[in-house]
Write a structure and sequence with these properties.
Layout (H helix, E strand, L loop, with lengths): L5 E4 H11 L5 H5 L1 E4 L5 E4 L1 H22 L4 E7 L5 E7 L29 H11 L3 E7 L3 E8 L7
Parallel strand pairs: 2-4
Antiparallel strand pairs: 1-3, 4-5, 5-7, 6-7
Helix pairs in contact: 1-3, 3-4
């Protein structure tokens, strides 16, 4: 429920999530570039937000490794309409156009057998909706995948 949400700094929350993420090694950690210069506040749960970021990082790291190339960029983008975005983009395998519409479906996975449960992105969508926001994805196969986490404006009195 909205009353359970706390005011969070996007920059601090994303930085903490990336710092806490269990990367396999320093090479994996070095894939991630964070630009937190455009900070904004959102109403959310730090714990749930961290799980969303972990899911997206896990996928990005997996698909960069799968492609044998690429890096992961994370940046914050306040929007003119008061909504705000966190973008997480990787330049790994990309997602096939026939798969893209299904990625937020529960139990759907395109990972190799035994790697993905198909819960991750459905969970991310549920969490973002509980924050009053949304998650979307754009991808070009072989080039990039970019997730956008969109947050509604924080009430001035909140």
């Amino acid at each position: 429920a909205p009353e359970d949400l706390e005011r969070l700094s996007a920059a601090a929350s994303i930085r903490a999530a990336i710092e806490r993420y269990p990367f396999a090694n320093d090479e994996e950690r070095a894939l991630v570039r964070l630009d937190e210069s455009q900070d904004f506040e959102f109403l959310g749960s730090e714990v749930m937000f961290t799980h969303v970021i972990f899911n997206l990082l896990k996928n990005a790291v997996y698909y960069v490794a799968e492609a044998g190339k690429g890096e992961i960029s994370v940046w914050l983008e306040p929007q003119a309409d008061g909504y705000n975005c966190i973008h997480i983009m990787d330049t790994g395998t990309g997602i096939a156009p026939n798969i893209l519409p299904r990625i937020f479906d529960r139990f759907f996975t395109s990972m190799s057998q035994g790697r993905g449960s198909g819960i991750g992105l459905a969970f991310c969508k549920m969490v973002m909706e509980s924050f009053g926001g949304s998650i979307s994805c754009e991808s070009e196969q072989g080039v990039f995948t970019r997730f956008a986490l969109t947050f509604p404006p924080v009430p001035v009195d909140g």
